[in-house]
Amino acid sequence: PAFAGAEHDWSAIELGAWLAGSWGVPLQIAGPAVEGGRDSSRLLASASIAVQRALGVAAEPLLLEAGPTALADASGEAAIAVVGLSDRWRQDGLGPTRGALVGTGRPVLLVRKGRRPGGLAPPENLTRFTWSILG
């Protein structure tokens, strides 16, 4: 799957936006044209607006046909593809879509959400701390 709104997908978009902004290249956020009877156009539009507002990077939504090779085919001209990595990857592997993308031999970065809020988090979450007790 391409962008589906999972927390790791948001982390991938954030990292992709930082890279695109620093390299001065366009950012495209890809999602399925039809999945379960619905397309992801609203989700992609929301993500594009969030990236533009929070990070100042213009993002272009890209609707892709269903199928495991659509994302790999669409990434042909990309400097790098940044994709969220499912929590289930250790049990299920990369899956057909991520596997096809990695199989292209082009640069791919698989991302998982960290423990701290990212740059797309609302300002009230940016000062959240975590603690560990050693005993």
Distance between the termini: 43 Å
Beta content comes to 5-15%
Residue-averaged pLDDT: 82
Q: Residue ranges: pLDDT <50 for 5 or more in a row?
A: 126-130
Rg over C-alpha atoms, rounded to the nearest angstrom: 15 Å
The biggest sheet amounts to: 2 strands, parallel
Helix content: 25-40%
Q: Rough shape?
A: globular
> Strand order of the main beta sheet, please?
1-2
Describe this structure in words.
The radius of gyration is 15 Å and the shape is globular. It has helices spanning 7-23, 41-55, 70-74, 89-92, 95-102, and strands at 27-32, 59-64, 81-84, 108-111. The model is unreliable at 126-130 (pLDDT under 50). 36% of the residues lie in helices and 15% in strands. The protein is of the alpha/beta class. It contains five helices and four strands; from the N terminus they run H-E-H-E-H-E-H-H-E. The strands form two sheets. A two-stranded parallel sheet has the order 1-2.
